[in-house]
Design brief:
heterodimer, A: 6-stranded mixed β-sheet, 4-stranded antiparallel β-sheet, B: mainly alpha, 2 domains, two-stranded antiparallel ribbon, 5 helices, elongated
Chain lengths: 298, 124
């Protein structure tokens, strides 16, 4: 289990994380969303023990992560910077990580390498960008850690590699309760892979929820009524957005379909259509609701 | 067979649940039929295995399927209530649309009468 309590991290004057609380149960997959500079990578770096926090605690299985070798050998962090081993060959990269991660599997490494067809004895700085990513992803998976951190790792993979990684994650989650933390700009990917999702903005966590409870929690409503109503008549329902085109009222409302139908029934609607918002739309309206400009969200 | 829409606004576990009910109603799944394992389904669909487990747990809770430890999950023969409830929900939706389009209760009743008279209550 991953547990962050009141975590603060500063770089000079810049506050990268400002009192972040986070709990990720074992065997689940967690998605971190947010614009650049929101603090996603900082969280992953704290979890991999690269940074130490300035305040609060960062714990994995009840132990502080920083400077803790027995925890660090159970965590693998896949990010672009991991591929700074340009002068290494893939064989060299494998041996380097194999020396550090006791659970490393040569068998799994070979199996994965064959699916992506990477050469063992060519220097990594002569690999294409995509090949570099593949190299670090297969190495990371072969380390068979209990925790896998993926910093925008899915975003740079081609569709074939994506499905390979996803299938690997399914096995690892079922066989050894792998916990993954994935940062992404891609809501679609998060939706398919993650159990829960958090949205970060300027070092603060805006929300953190079960992905299925997010979906269907806000609806777009199109309604027409016999009587004349204005925006003010709907405000008591806690609307997030209102617009009108002739006799049709467009509302964005929180709540399940049943709850919303129940609320609006007192106004005697002639037309009442509800569409649940997509995850992406929900985030945008939630951000607006908290006074953030949606334009700041990627 | 278990195709789902990953882009949909409906949660993935809910889509899987509905798909199993739908396949059972259409007799493509029959009592005693074995479902794919959580692992197989999660891999085939490229989704989180916890999501598939959640769908299976809900199906089992509602009596649609039953699980035998170490053997897998099977379609139950005692799932009549869930199937009827599902049918009632779909029927209600269709009736609401019909009402919105201007069909009267009498006109709708007439359609129902015709269907039941001609034995259309059987699904072919």
């Amino acid at each position: 289990m991953i547990k962050l309590t009141g975590v603060t991290k500063k770089f000079g004057d810049f506050t990268a994380l400002d009192g972040v609380d986070l709990m990720i149960p074992k065997g689940t997959s967690f998605g971190l969303l947010g614009s650049n500079g929101a603090g996603k990578s900082t969280i992953l770096r704290l979890l991999s023990g690269i940074y130490s926090q300035d305040g609060g605690s960062v714990k994995i299985d009840d132990e502080e992560v920083f400077d803790n070798t027995s925890i660090k050998e159970r965590v693998f962090f896949i990010n672009d910077e991991t591929v700074q081993f340009g002068s290494f060959t893939l064989k060299g990269l494998r041996d380097y990580y194999k020396g550090f991660y006791p659970n490393f599997s040569d068998e799994l490494f070979e199996e994965l390498r064959n699916t992506v067809n990477l050469p063992m004895d060519k220097k990594i700085d002569r690999f294409s960008k995509g090949m570099k990513r593949q190299a670090i992803v297969i190495t990371g998976l072969a380390c068979r850690t209990d925790y896998l951190l993926l910093d925008e790792a899915f975003d740079g993979l081609d569709p074939t590699m994506r499905i390979i990684v996803k299938r690997m994650l399914v096995d690892a989650m079922l066989d050894r309760q792998l916990t993954t933390v994935i940062s992404s700009h891609n809501l679609k990917e998060i939706n398919e892979v993650c159990d829960s999702v958090a949205l970060l903005h300027q070092g603060k966590m805006l929300f953190n929820r079960d992905i299925d409870s997010v979906k269907g929690s806000i609806h777009k409503v199109q309604a027409a009524f016999k009587e004349e109503y204005t925006k003010e008549d709907f405000e008591k329902y806690g609307i997030l957005h209102y617009s009108r085109s002739q006799s049709i009222h467009y509302l964005i409302m929180k709540g399940s379909e049943e709850e919303i139908r129940e609320k609006l029934s007192e106004k005697g609607p002639i037309v009442l259509d509800l569409i649940p918002l997509s995850l992406e739309e929900i985030f945008i309206y939630e951000m607006e609701g908290m006074g953030y400009d949606a334009g700041q969200l990627d | 067979m278990f195709d789902i829409d990953l882009q949909s606004r409906t949660p993935i576990y809910e889509q899987l649940y509905k798909r199993v009910v739908e396949l059972t109603v259409k007799k493509q799944l029959r009592p005693g039929d074995k479902l794919p394992s959580v692992r197989e389904l999660a891999k085939a669909l490229g989704v989180n295995p916890n999501t598939v487990s959640k769908a299976f747990q809900n199906l089992e809770r509602d009596g649609m399927i039953y699980s035998l430890p170490g053997r897998g999950s099977f379609i139950s023969d005692k799932n009549g209530d869930v199937i009827k409830q599902n049918a009632a929900e779909q029927f209600t939706l269709a009736a609401k649309e019909a009402a919105a389009a201007g069909l009267t209760a009498e006109e709708m009743t007439e359609i129902i009468r015709k269907i039941t008279e001609t034995g259309g209550n059987k699904i072919d």
